[in-house]
Automatic annotation (TrEMBL):
This is Peptidase A1 domain-containing protein. PROSITE patterns: PEPTIDASE_A1 (PS51767). Keywords: Aspartyl protease, Glycoprotein, Hydrolase, Protease, Signal. Pfam families: TAXi_C, TAXi_N.
């Protein structure tokens, strides 16, 4: 009887542990919901760096000025998570970068006419360089000055100026009835990227992970870009503005979530990161930690949270600047959650304080300053490679924890802080800190929480309650549960 009881107890304990481990993943695998959609994001890396990451040349700043004086979001050409869009009749499949740091969705346009300057990293990747041809779509037409999207895309101090130049009369502008084409736009990104094109409307169809589940928008508004500088892939804007893809899909009233696969899955066509939009993204989240979403008076369309501290092991970085948790009178500050920026960026002198604490904590491994010069990262170490497992040395390095407002803490999963930047050699591997410093300047966010640090973390954007949740998760298992892993 005692033996039988022990077996039963052990079995029940196994069931309990198993249910706890799989709870968060199963919470994503909800039944079909007409107010939700589950999509897959492909992790793409630049062809010249297929396996190992490389530092960016500058941080992503929000503010940039286009030819009409409009403030625009900014980004750099780098690794990212791509979503497939089916645009036109018949549909043309275009992959674009999923970006929570901007609103505009745009695609490269023209068969041979699309011109992208300084895009050499992508030249040999036909999939990433695919273009949309409006002339091959029977449902494509140019956006007009009567559309509110035309005002949004130009966004100058006087939004009627562009259409006045295009020949619209004052009466048609006031009544929003001018049928003249919306003038061409130039959309400038703070890291130096620029796209130029025309506002276009066409049928958009996005396919969910389940067969037969799709969302169709007959008059989807997007930018048809004919020329670009350092912007080759196109972008699906997931900001909070009316132009964003999330808004036009009709899910912006509720929210969405994503679970980014680890960098080791880059360029793997057989598995995709879950992107959940609508009701399902917010179900079964009672046990999740949420931090308030900060609303910038100057940049209301983007996602900000407040950062209170960063802990390295058991040591907290001191003097966290107030700019990381609040805005100044002009709307600058806050920590921006941005899937379009690869690495987390922190302001000085706080960034240097974090580096100093890491250096004082990591005493057993030699720094590799040569690799720092080669990659552009600021802190690299030669770490033993136990059992020939490249990632097993993560536990030899101190953990890093982000502490947000409302007592929300996120311990970065393994591989999100230090990551190999070269092949193993002599039983050691060089790992670098995947953080960078913000560029000098007071405009825009004080810091950026990049996509690399969001790997294997479910990030929930609860737009109804204006809060953002973080929960460590095995995103590969989540992808399998959603039918996003081909075996």
């Amino acid at each position: 009887m005692a033996i039988a009881l022990n077996k039963t107890t052990t079995f029940l304990f196994f069931l309990l542990v198993n249910s706890l481990v799989s709870y968060s993943i199963q919470s994503l695998a909800s039944p079909r919901n007409p107010n939700s959609l589950i999509l897959g994001l492909t992790l793409a890396s630049r062809a010249s760096f297929p396996t190992y990451p490389k530092a960016s040349t500058s941080s992503r700043k929000i503010v940039s000025i286009d030819v009409l004086g409009a403030k625009k979001p900014s980004r750099e050409v780098r690794d990212g998570y791509l979503i497939s869009l089916n645009i036109g009749t018949p549909p043309q499949v275009i992959q674009v970068l999923m970006d929570t740091g901007s609103d505009l969705t745009w695609v490269p346009c023209g068969n041979l006419s699309f011109d992208c300057m300084e895009c050499d990293d992508y030249r040999n990747n036909d999939q990433l360089m695919a273009t949309f041809s409006p002339s091959y779509s029977s449902s494509s037409y140019r956006g007009s000055c009567a559309s509110p999207f035309c005002i949004d895309i130009h966004g100058s101090d006087n939004p009627l100026d562009p259409c006045t130049v295009a020949g619209c009369s004052l009466s048609t502008l006031v009544k929003a009835t001018c049928s003249r084409p919306c003038p061409s736009f130039a959309y400038t990104y703070g890291a130096g990227g620029v796209v130029a094109g025309i506002l276009t409307r066409d049928t958009l169809r996005v396919n969910g992970s389940s067969p037969g589940v799709a969302k169709e928008i007959p008059k989807f508004c997007f930018g048809c870009v004919g020329s670009a500088y350092r912007e080759p892939m196109g972008i699906a804007g997931f900001g909070r503005g009316t132009l964003s893809m999330a808004s036009q899909l009709g899910f912006l009233q509720k929210g969405f979530s994503h679970c980014f696969l680890a960098f080791k899955y880059a360029n793997n066509p057989n598995i995709s990161s879950p992107l959940v939009v609508g009701d399902i993204a917010l179900t079964s989240k009672d046990d999740m930690q949420f931090t308030p979403m900060l609303n910038s008076p100057m940049y209301p369309n983007f996602y900000y949270v407040g950062l209170e501290a960063i802990t390295v092991g058991n040591v907290s970085a001191t003097e966290v600047p107030s700019s990381l948790r609040e805005f100044d009178s002009l709307g600058n500050g806050g920590l921006k959650i941005d899937s379009g920026t690869t690495y987390t960026h922190l302001p000085e002198p706080f960034y240097s304080q974090v580096l100093s604490i890491l250096q004082s904590t990591i005493l057993n491994y030699p720094r590799d300053t040569g690799m720092e010069m080669q990659t552009g990262f600021d802190l690299c170490y030669k770490v033993p490679r136990p059992n020939n497992n490249t990632l097993a040395s993560d536990d030899l390095l101190p953990s890093i924890t982000f502490h947000f407002l409302n007592n929300v803490s996120l311990v970065l999963p393994q591989g999100n802080h230090f990551y190999p930047v070269s092949a193993p050699s002599n039983a050691a591997v060089v790992k670098c800190l995947m953080f960078q410093r913000m560029d000098d300047g007071d405009d825009g966010p004080a810091g950026v929480f990049g996509s690399f640090q969001q790997q294997n973390v479910e990030v929930v954007y609860d737009l109804e309650k204006e809060r953002i949740g973080f929960q460590p998760m095995d995103c590969a298992s989540a992808a399998s549960s959603q039918g996003l892993h081909k075996t």
